[in-house]
Amino acid sequence: MPVSIKLKDNRYGKSRVRLVKVERGSAGNDLKDLSVDIQLSGDFEASYTAGDNRLVIPTDTMKNTVYALARQAPLLEIEEFGLRLADHFLKRHAHVARARISISENLWKRIEHDGRQHAYSFQLSGPERRTASIDRDRKSISIAAGIADLVVLKTKNSAFEGFLRDEYTTLKETNDRLFGTAVTAEWSYNKTSLKFGDLWESIRDTMLETFANHDSRGVQHTLSAMGEFVLKRFDAVREIHLSMPNRHCLLVDLSPFHLDNPNEVFVPTDEPHGLIEATLTRSGS
Amino acid sequence: MPVSIKLKDNRYGKSRVRLVKVERGSAGNDLKDLSVDIQLSGDFEASYTAGDNRLVIPTDTMKNTVYALARQAPLLEIEEFGLRLADHFLKRHAHVARARISISENLWKRIEHDGRQHAYSFQLSGPERRTASIDRDRKSISIAAGIADLVVLKTKNSAFEGFLRDEYTTLKETNDRLFGTAVTAEWSYNKTSLKFGDLWESIRDTMLETFANHDSRGVQHTLSAMGEFVLKRFDAVREIHLSMPNRHCLLVDLSPFHLDNPNEVFVPTDEPHGLIEATLTRSGS
Amino acid sequence: MPVSIKLKDNRYGKSRVRLVKVERGSAGNDLKDLSVDIQLSGDFEASYTAGDNRLVIPTDTMKNTVYALARQAPLLEIEEFGLRLADHFLKRHAHVARARISISENLWKRIEHDGRQHAYSFQLSGPERRTASIDRDRKSISIAAGIADLVVLKTKNSAFEGFLRDEYTTLKETNDRLFGTAVTAEWSYNKTSLKFGDLWESIRDTMLETFANHDSRGVQHTLSAMGEFVLKRFDAVREIHLSMPNRHCLLVDLSPFHLDNPNEVFVPTDEPHGLIEATLTRSGS
Amino acid sequence: MPVSIKLKDNRYGKSRVRLVKVERGSAGNDLKDLSVDIQLSGDFEASYTAGDNRLVIPTDTMKNTVYALARQAPLLEIEEFGLRLADHFLKRHAHVARARISISENLWKRIEHDGRQHAYSFQLSGPERRTASIDRDRKSISIAAGIADLVVLKTKNSAFEGFLRDEYTTLKETNDRLFGTAVTAEWSYNKTSLKFGDLWESIRDTMLETFANHDSRGVQHTLSAMGEFVLKRFDAVREIHLSMPNRHCLLVDLSPFHLDNPNEVFVPTDEPHGLIEATLTRSGS
């Protein structure tokens, strides 16, 4: 590569390494269903500039590593499996400077029948997925947990009024609209050893509860409340990022058919959609 | 159109008419979230052969009709809303010979907190959707209900042995494999007035229970058992069609890493996939 | 299975068997990129009713068969590869009554540079795919070819006027609208030995040309013209089915901003969409 | 919001504002088909913390603005339309600190027949899309152009050898493999007034040519060459980021069927996939 051009940054890895692990116990089987993404940075420049692969860990090897490590010990929580994977690459290969592991978990629940949960038969639960991101270099380690596609909708206590109007504004003010969204949230922890599973459940519940009960003056308002409650209740959470599309439900104009529409009949739309994002953190940080 | 070419059959309509209806009661709100497809057949040939639109009901009008009818009465169950829509087109327009209405319902559940269900806040439940198809002409009416994308997996009591081997067979026999599938089922009713909601719940439970408990010798075997139990338990069901992809979970070969794999670590794959389909009916029919 | 319940029909097979074949010649390489679906019917009832797999050809074997047959001879056109696959299953296994093979081909073109086509580097061409369906039993054979997702749009010579109006009609008549659609067509041939590749290209061109030049009074009108021209020009085509969604482009009302909109600014929408379908055939048939 | 918690950052806007514009000329019509995303930052904190919407520009207004601005002047290139949109929000509203506009353009080509291009009928061209991102605040402006989903594959001159091996490596070295990828690239310009359309075409051609001709020792190697050539040839390009998944084509083992496979028959797979990313820049920067 000539003097005037340089590689500014680079990373590479394997994406969508899918893994199902069955852990078989006397009280029934446990089922884990993960998709793992691995990205490494480090001394890989020669592979870009000169096609010199001597330090390249093949992405196929990364895939194999996921399966081998999955076999060697219980998976535990996805934050813990991600930590093990990140540790492996940094410890095993001195030229790896940084490892980022992202895991998305499909959630299965046991099939219920006659009030009992089946021991080995499962049903996929919801579009929602549990996520974790581990970012580790030689000095520091960052653990984030999250949720994706938690689709919620409330039919009451949602308003959008008093907004700015300019020459392109046609939207009517409303103190009673539908508010539907697909919450994606990611929060970072300030410790590396925590009860990740219990925390995730509790944080999810807090977000659901806040969404349900909040007297919403807008998506921004509710998003902020959701983040605030999580930070208030969970000391282990350092910071939280929320991203909430506004999946608009448009009131249908039924007047051409001589019908009123007292907030009853709506067209849900996927596009265009509002998109509201914010990060909340603790003041000291 | 010249003598030698003719229009053999035709139909047209509107697809993906999305409708959210909120029914507001004192005990809380109900939320219905549907996607409606309408297809009409009848005396529409001139629109094809001569561009003569005089008998064409615009698909935009079909869309409007969905919203107007949704406002004029409670939606009730999707089978009932589909019947109302089909009836409307046949009664209103003498040249419509046949109306087919397909409805897919997204399922929402109330957000739970502290053991109570919220009165007006909901969460989307599962990838699974409830479906209904109404096919009505001047003489007869057919009502089918169904389920789509009911994703299930069992980690025990699933075998696949004793199959035919030819020169292209490499698959090993197994008496213990994972069995994952996304059930799509549609069943027709022999009556037009039924408790469609209760029936749907019970039929869904029957299919889940059968899948969970069946000692499976193959996808065909379990599919057939699921259909059989539905027909046995529910007199109102005339016939049932099931379609079950085999979402293979392949056992990972860990021997290169000097590890065994006692049915623990799998790669789930989306493609290729087996696809098993059958229709079960009553012998008299 | 008890006397009162019977298996009405059944079929099974492997879907989405993906195959890339490189045929290496002195003038450059050829690249074929297919997705194959196989469905067999026959004497498979015992696998459903009794879990008896003795006559079951595993879907894994079907997958292997695709790759083995791909190696044993040139693929040729997808209609021909489909025929070979169908023949194989019927000839090899006396209990197979019927084989249906569907193939979807991704279309690649050579990368062009300085007016020359590269010998071994390719670019995926279009969302459109070429398709073929072979349906073969012990007595007859049906060969159909097709196209999927041929996305076209015309900005002139498209009207929709003179349609029926009822109490739910709000659509305005227009003699100048955008007409966008994604053509899916499938036509059956009356011979089993044809120049399938040349025919496919010519039929595709005929449909494009007709769409482009037709003075459209509606989707039905243009769909019918497209089918008619194909039947007129190609004696080998027995029948053609076309399915054309109306991907509406809605004229934006700019009057709130004191702007006119002389058919210039549109919102394209995916849902809801009109869906127009018809089959055209020869009168004698 | 209590003292201990603060809003760290926030932004909001409208996504997937779809716009089709027809520009009608004597020589034929031009068709533009865009999807626009708008994100604003600025003095919006009160809407989050207090539900005070007085400074909130509704996302519905942003959508209207896209359509109104599209009508008021020719769209020109997407970089220019993006600049107009960003300028509008900053000039019109003093409390907007930063506007980010992302535009994705579907590419249509005229339908060709008898060697001539049709004046008003179009066909969607390729999965590839042209993209632009404008990021503008009160002090600076950044313009990036790009390409998404440019799917390419080469059947020769691609190797992957001499890589690192550890205890989890099973991959075989190869000096002849298929190399398929879907290029996503984004490059920033060092000027705000350029012939954006011509540049985009030339940069795309350079990437295609480099991919086609490069003697590849790995995805990293070719990615780097593609970026390097763009920077060498185009002074206006300040920096380029490339992201290239490795869409593996796995050689099928046909030995169980007593067949060889001299790099002919492959299974293309979507998951897992390698993912290689890098940014190249000029040394002075």
Going by CATH, the homologous superfamily of the largest domain in chain A would be: Urate Oxidase
Largest β sheet strand count, sense and barrel closure of chain A = 8 strands, antiparallel
- How is the quaternary structure best described? homotetramer
Structural domain tally of chain A:
2
What is the C-alpha radius of gyration of chain A, as a whole number of Å? Answer: 23 Å
Descriptive terms for the model:
45% strand; homotetramer; 5 helices; alpha+beta; 8-stranded antiparallel beta sheet
Topology overview:
Four copies of one chain form a homotetramer.
Chain A: E1 5-25, E2 28-42, H1 45-49, H2 59-72, H3 78-92, E3 96-113, E4 116-137, E5 141-154, E6 179-189, H4 196-213, H5 219-233, E7 237-246, E8 249-251, E9 265-268, E10 273-282
Antiparallel strand pairs in A: 1-2, 2-3, 3-4, 4-5, 5-6, 6-7, 7-10, 8-9
Question: How would you portray this structure in words?
Answer:
The structure is a homotetramer of 285-residue chains. Chain A is α+β, with helices and mostly antiparallel strands and 285 residues long. The first copy, chain A, folds into 2 domains: 9-139, Urate Oxidase (Roll); 141-285, Urate Oxidase (Roll), CATH 3.10.270. Chain A has 5 helices and 10 strands; from the N terminus they run E-E-H-H-H-E-E-E-E-H-H-E-E-E-E. An 8-stranded antiparallel beta sheet of chain A has the order 1-2-3-4-5-6-7-10. In chain A, strands 8-9 form a two-stranded antiparallel sheet. In chain A, helix 4 (196-213) packs antiparallel against helix 5 (219-233). Chain A is globular. The model of chain A has no long low-confidence stretch (mean pLDDT 96). Chains in contact: A-B, A-C, A-D, B-C, B-D, C-D. The interface between A and D is large, with 82 and 84 residues.
